[in-house]
Amino acid sequence: MKILALETATDACSAALWLDGEVEETLRLAPREHAALLLPMVQSLLAGAGLTLGRLDALAFGRGPGSFTGLRIAAGMAQGLAFGAGLPVVPVSTLAALAQGTAREQGVDRVLAALDARMQEVYWGAYRLQGAHVVAAAQEIVCPPTAVPPPPGAGEWAGAGSGWLAWGEALRAATGASRVFADQRPQARDVASLAATGLAAGEAVAPEQVRPVYLRDQVAIKPGAGA
Amino acid sequence: MKVLGIETSCDETGVAVYDTARGLLADALHSQIALHADYGGVVPELASRDHVRKLLPLVRRVLDEAGVERQALDGIAYTAGPGLVGALLVGASLGRSLACALDVPAIGVHHMEGHLLAPMLETPAPCLPFVALLVSGGHTLLVAVHAIGDYRILGDTLDDAAGEAFDKTAKLLGLDYPGGPAVARLAESGDPARFRFPRPMTDRPGLDFSFSGLKTFTLTTAREAGDDPQTRADIARAFQDAVVDTLYIKCRRALQQTGLRTLVVAGGVGANRALRARLAELERAQGASVFYPRPEFCTDNGAMIAYAGALRLRAGQGEGLAVEVRPRWSLEALSVVA
Hints:
The complex is a heterodimer.
Chain A: E1 2-7, E2 12-19, E3 22-29, H1 34-49, E4 58-62, H2 68-85, E5 89-92, H3 94-106, E6 110-116, E7 122-130, E8 133-136, E9 141-143, E10 158-160, H4 162-175, E11 180-181, H5 188-200
Parallel strand pairs in A: 1-4, 4-5, 6-10, 10-11
Antiparallel strand pairs in A: 1-2, 2-3, 6-7, 7-8, 7-9
Chain B: E1 2-7, E2 12-19, E3 23-31, H1 33-37, H2 44-66, E4 75-81, H3 85-102, E5 106-110, H4 111-117, E6 130-135, E7 140-147, E8 150-156, H5 162-172, H6 180-187, H7 212-225, H8 229-258, E9 262-266, H9 273-286, E10 289-291, H10 302-314
Parallel strand pairs in B: 1-4, 4-5, 6-9, 9-10
Antiparallel strand pairs in B: 1-2, 2-3, 6-7, 7-8
Helix pairs in contact in B: 2-3, 4-10, 5-6, 5-7, 5-8, 6-8, 7-8, 8-9
C-alpha cells in the first residue's frame, strides 16, 4: 500500500510517503510557511521514491484539530492532489497522530494528547496503544485546561503536545500524569501509518467529502446575541 | 487552451472553465450572503470554512457542465489576492495542488485584474486602451489600461468604497445586510427634488473619491426629516443620486484627462441601473463607448479569473510549487502580458 500524508495543523509542516510500511518523511518547523513548503516537499518525496501520484493508493491528511488555516491548507492540498490523481482521501485525527508519534518515540502506551488551542483552551484527546497503532479512548474535545476529564482508565498515562507546554501545571493537576513529552508534535509519518490502517478499514472518503475537524465551532458572535 | 478559474477571495465561491479557442464553457457560483447576513458583515473564518465545503463540488459541477474531463485542462488559475488571507488560501491550495497533480501550469490572478477584464468576456468586447471604473463594496478605482497588466491607477477612494457607502446607508435606513441593492430599489420611489446631498470632491481637480461624508449627511438628514417611508425613499434617492453623479463626473474627467474614448465599468455597483443610465450620457454627449460585464459578472465570479489567468498562462507565465497569496497587492505591481 502506498500513501502520501500531509500534516500542517501546528508549527510543524510535514509530508510523508508510506510505501508498504517503509516511511520517508520531510518535516520543517516553519510557522506561517506551510502553504509555500508543502508541494515542494511532496514533489521531492515522490521524485526520491521514483513515483508519481497516480501510482499511490490514497492521500492522507491531518484533519485537525489545530490551526484553522493549517487545517485548510492540508485539506485543500489533499483535495487538489487526490482529485487530480483520482485517489481517495483518508482523514486522520491530528491528536491521534500526536499520540501515535509519542508512542513510537517514547515507548509509552497511554497518551493524553493536548494541543494549545489559544483562547485559554486546549484540544484534548486520550489514546491507547493496541498492537502497532493508537486508538481513541475518549472523545476529542476543546476545553479549558482545568476542565479536562480524568484519564479514561487505570494505568500510567503520559502527556504529549504543545498543550502541556502552555498549561503543564493545570493539566498535571487535572490528570495526575507524571511523564510529559511537551515537545512531541503531530507528524505526517504517523498520519501515514494511521491512514494505512484506516484505508484498510474502509475509512477513505471522496476528495469532495474532505472536511477539517476544528472542534471549536463557535467562531463569531451575532450582533445582539449578548456576550 | 482550457483553463479552470477559481475565485475565493471573499464571500463568494466562483468556478469557471474558459477556453481560449471557444470562450467561456461553464461557470458556477455559490454565494455566502445568507451565511453572513446575521452578523451584519463578512466573518472571515466562516467564509474560509464555507469555501472548503463548497469549492471542490463546484469544480466537479463546472467541469461536468463544460463537458471537460479534468485531464483535458491545460492550466489552472486562482485568485491570489487581494482579499481575505484565509479565504484566498483555500482556493490557492486546492488550485495549485490540482495543477500539480494534473501536471499543468498554474497562475495566481489579481482579483481586480479579473474584474477589469470581465467586460472582455462579452460581445462586443472593449478594445484596448480604456479607462476602467472598478466600483464595489471593497473598491472605488479609476484605472488606465493600456495593455493587459499595464495598469495605472488614476483615482482611488480616500475612505469608504462606493458599495460600502451603499451598505452603510442601508443600515442607517433600517434595511437588511447587504443593503446596497435595497437602497437602489427604495430610491426608485424617492423624490429627486426633496433633498440634495453633496457630490464629494467634485469641486476640485483630481480623480480621487471620498464617500464617508455622505453617510454622515444621510444620518443628519434622517434625524431632521423623520423616518416615514416616503422620507426614507427620498433620502435613498438623494444618496444614490449623489454617488451616481460623483462617479459620472470623475469618469468624464478621467476620459478627458487621458484622451481615451472607452470606459469599462466593473464591480458590484456596476450593476446599479441609475449608474448605467447616467453613464450612458457619456456615450451621447462625449462620443465615448461604455462597456459592462453581464450583471452576474459584475460581482465576484470564477469566469473573470479563468479569463485573466488564461491570458497570462497563454503568454507563458506561471507559478512555482510554493503557494503564495497576497492579501494586499497593488494592481500597478503586475507584469505586462506582451
